Amino acid sequence: MPSDRYRAHEPGKDSRRAYLVFAVGTFAYFSAVAQRTSFGVASVDAAERFGTAASALSMFSLMQILVYAALQIPVGVLVDRFGSRVMVAAGALLMTAGQVQLALADTVGEGVAARVLVGAGDATTFVCVMRLIPAWFSALRVPPLTQFLGVVGNLGQLVSVIPFAWLLELTGWFPSFAALASLALLAAVLAATLLRNASPGVEVLNPALGLRRTGRVLRESVAEPGTRLGFWVHFTTQFAGNTFVLMWGYPYLEYAQDLSDTTISLVMTSFVVTNLAVALGLGGLSARHPHRRVRLSLGVTAVIFAAWTVLLVWPGTAPVPVVLAAVCVIAISMPASMIAFDITRSFNPARRSGTATGIVNVGGFTASVLAIFVTGFVLDVLHAAGFRDELYAPDAFRVAIAAQFLVAAAGAAGVLATVRRVRRQHGHDAA
Questions:
Q1: CA dihedral of 81, 230, 337, 125, whole degrees rounded to 10
Q2: Which of 185, 230, 252, 407 could form a disulfide with 360 if both were Cys (CB 3.0 to 4.6 A apart)?
Q3: What keyword terms does UniProt attach to this protein (predicted)?
């Protein structure tokens, strides 16, 4: 059975410099999440600006996430070779360019190209900051800091929900997206000047990682069933929250639940606060009970879709407290998805940590692409068939959201299949 080999302290780690590096990396991820989630807040304005239907509008987020997912493995390989400092700074510059492009865009094509740039820059951030944690901190501190990174990073959603939404309403499209571009530029400057790949005297890069060796590392990572288990856990747990916050949460709350802008902001803020409240507890459970990680992730997924079921079967619009409670449950998907990285780290050596993390991170965003697309597709099909006069009719949303249950079922099947392989190879208590 693999072990996380938790130790209280390792020489050269857990220093003040380590916490400075972690703080800069966390800010870079915070900025990336703000860039990532901004379009979900602006989706109604975007529909008016670009004059497009639901499935075409979903292409903005779909292409962003597709690029993000497609780049995870290449980014994992590149960070193993070039280090986090270069990759995080470069990613922040790409997001700066993407938000400037979106601020100026007048057509769907220009807007989608902008979100592609944002997705590419976002892709370089999380995996590369994650790589800094075991390089700068002792093993006992890695799972809680991993959860803390996810929590504080996801607070970037608050930038979208509150100041960005307020600025969008007050000043319009260009100034609001230009402001987000300036935040990304600040992250690029801080990463370039303050990030370091590891503590002094510790070599974590693999500069000899050529094409042939890259292929071998990739094959080894994929061949490890623990990596595949991490992929499916991430696939299953993350997409519900991702789909909600990146694309369909705002339209659903506005049209299906008939909430005011003020109430929507409250609900979305509660989504983020729930991440903060739950994440550190999940991180502690994951660290203390590694053999229960899979059961924990499947249990969270079941609770999330039970909450969705309550909203979908509620006659008419649900009371605000019920909506608020359900959205807070859906929000648990974000910190729960971090368990996947604890799983894969337990089965992969440090020399291929970036590659393995990249593979795992593809999972949740692949599921998000499927869920975002199927929701928009069902809405358009129902509208074209005359199911309701309005595109975003409440009854249409019930059917479209229910289609996401198929994605969850596929993910759960993947988890159950791969956990059996892990236990056969590493022992029953391995996961």
A1: 10
A2: 230
A3: Cell membrane, Membrane, Transmembrane, Transmembrane helix, Transport
Cα torsion for 195, 65, 231, 71, to the nearest 10°?
Answer: -60
For CATH 1.20.1250.20, the residue range(s) in the chain are: 12-197, 220-430
What CATH class is the domain 220-430? mainly alpha
CATH entry 3.30.559.70 includes domain 12-197: no
Distance CA 287, CA 289 (A): 6
Q: Residues 199-236: pLDDT tens digits?
A: 666 665 656 556 567 778 788 888 999 999 999 999 99
Residue given tokens 């949460």 in the structure block: 249
- CA torsion, points 83, 89, 93, 99, in degrees to nearest 10? 100
Q: What mean pLDDT comes out for the span 374-385?
A: 90
27: tokens are 């800010």
Q: Which two tokens stand for residue 19?
A: 């916490």
Instruction: Please state at what angle helix 353-384 crosses helix 126-136, rounded to 10 degrees.
Output: 150
Q: What is the pTM of this model?
A: 0.76
Residue where the block lists tokens 């070599």: 203
